[in-house]
Structures are given as C-alpha cells and as structure tokens.
Automatic annotation (TrEMBL):
One of its GO terms (molecular function) is metal ion binding. Residues 37-144, 185-291 form the Cytochrome c domain. It comes from the Bacteria. Transmembrane segments: none annotated. SUPFAM superfamilies: Cytochrome c. The keyword Ion transport does not apply. Keywords: Heme, Iron, Metal-binding, Signal. This is Diheme cytochrome c-type. Residues 1-22 form the signal peptide. PANTHER family: ALCOHOL DEHYDROGENASE CYTOCHROME C SUBUNIT, BLL4482 PROTEIN-RELATED. The lineage of its organism: Bacteria, Pseudomonadati, Pseudomonadota, Alphaproteobacteria, Rhodobacterales.
Length: 294
C-alpha cells in the first residue's frame, strides 16, 4: 500500500514540472526599453514578413490588403486555423504594448498569456531582430482600423489544449539559423529574409507527425496542407535557376520557362517585389547555399 502514495507523489511532481516547462515566456522587457519604432523601416518589414497575405480579408485587392481584418482560413492536418484581426483597432491589436506585440511575434504568446498555434510562424520570427519587430508594430499602427471579430479556430481534441503547445515549443522551437555555412554579407542578408522574415521554411519544408519542421530536409518541398498538389523543393537539388532568374521570378512572377506564379506564392512575389532589388538578390544568393535535398 505504500506504493500508491509514492506513485501519487511522483505524478504530482511530474505534473508540476510539466506545467512549469510548458509555461508561456515573454519578450525581455529590458531589451526593449531603449527601442523606438521606425515606421519607414517597418513598412519594409511588413512586406518581407507577408503580414497582409495572411491577415487581409479573404479576396482583398489593392489598398484593401492593408486592412488587416483577418478571416482567411488555413486548413492543416490538425484543423483549420483562421487568421485573426491584427488591425490597430480594439478588436485587433490596437491596445497592445510594444512588449506584448514582440512577445506575440517572437514567442508565440498572447497578451493574455496563452500559447499561439504555430500556424502563426513565430518559430521563424523568433530569429528577427527586436528592432525590426518594434518597427513592424510602428507601421501596423499607421494602418486602417477594422472592427471585424476574430473567427474561432476549428481544432479538435487534443490539439485544442493550448497548454500542450508549450510542449510543442520545447520540442521544435529552435532559435538560430538552419544554414550555418560560411556566408558572405549578402548571403547572410538573404538568410535573414528567407529563414526569419519571409519564413520560407514554414511552407517549403516537410514536417513530422507533430507538425515540427524537419530541419535536416530544409526547403525540400512538401504536400500542400490544403490538399491540392505540393509545395516545391527549392533547394539546389531541384531549383536549378540562376540567381538572376530567381530575382526575376521574385520580381515579376515569371519563371524562366515563361510560366507564371500562382496560388499563395503570388502574394509572396507581390511582397518581395516591394523590397529593394538587393534584398531579392540576397535571397537568390542564399538559396544557392542551402544544402541540396531530394
């Protein structure tokens, strides 16, 4: 009979340890104290990170893409996620402090202390500089307000247990670069854009059964989670375009074979085309340094 109290004690200790390990973490307030947002740079960060592509209303065109009302649906193997309203309104992120915004973007934690689902690519944004994230908020604060309420995610048990996402982060949230080769300054800039801001790996890399990115097969392509076709391998094993051809594609959406970009990638090209050409060239240079993967 003495075994039962011992087992209960061990279970209690394990439960407390698990609760502590899965606790949400916040951005370092001290590191943000001296940072001031620059909306001009924030606009470039906004396009590089593709905020409008996910957070504009479904079907929005032109200037309406700057109204970050949310509502787009993103089906996955774990359920369907709906992009929230991130306009600077009361229904969006209008009342958020800089610390709350940086915590959301880099830690995947809401102002209320809940873990966000990794459909929000904070695993990539974790590698962004704090200054760029602060600048991003400064630009979003200049955009139109919208009162559209958020749509709830359609996620079933056990994935609807938010605390379990703390365990997911322990397993798969890895700060630091995937490509650690000896890179030039231009290639490093391309890595920063591709791995952090533009979060290319979030779509172009395969994932394991728990949704963690297989970093050993970085950018090797994967089935489309929406169920239509696949997302291509963009490592040098399959992407044989020259750097100039990659830059042309990221500028105009036309491939060397005179095909045109489609699907969600069309938004990515629109975003990339708004960046300086030097940034598109840096991404092309980086892609040539990615280890080939079949």
């Amino acid at each position: 009979m003495r075994l039962i109290p011992s087992l209960l004690a061990l279970a209690a200790i394990a439960g407390a340890a698990g609760w502590w390990l899965t606790a949400p973490t916040r951005a370092p307030a001290a590191a943000l104290a001296d940072l001031t947002g620059d909306a001009t740079n924030g606009e470039l960060v906004f396009w590089a990170t593709g905020c409008a592509s996910c957070h504009m209303a479904p079907g929005a065109k032109g200037e309406a893409q700057l109204v970050l009302a949310g509502g787009q649906a993103f089906p996955t193997a774990f359920g369907t996620f709906h992009a929230p309203n991130i306009s600077p309104s009361a229904e969006g992120i209008g009342g958020w402090t800089t610390e709350e915004f940086v915590t959301a973007v880099t830690k995947g934690v809401s102002p209320g202390g809940q873990h966000y689902y990794p459909a929000f690519p904070y695993a990539a944004f974790a590698n962004m500089t704090l200054q760029d994230v602060v600048d991003l908020k400064a630009f979003i604060d200049t955009l139109p307000q919208d009162a559209t309420p958020d749509k709830p995610h359609d996620v079933g048990f056990p994935f609807n247990i938010r605390r379990s996402l703390g365990g997911w982060k322990l397993l798969f949230l890895r700060e630091g670069w995937v490509v650690n080769a000896d890179l030039t300054e231009i290639e490093q800039r391309g890595r920063y854009i591709a791995e952090a801001m533009a979060h290319c790996g979030e779509c172009h890399s395969p994932r394991n059964a728990l949704g963690g990115i297989e970093r050993s097969r970085w950018l090797a392509g994967t089935p489309n989670p929406a169920g239509e076709g696949s997302i291509p391998n963009i490592t040098p094993a399959k992407l044989t375009w020259s750097e100039d051809e990659i830059v042309e594609y990221l500028t105009t959406g036309f491939t060397p074979e005179y095909d045109s970009v489609g699907g969600h990638m069309a938004h990515v090209v629109e975003n990339m085309a708004r960046l300086p050409e030097s940034d598109r060239a840096s991404v092309a240079a980086y892609l040539k340094k990615v280890p080939p993967a079949e």
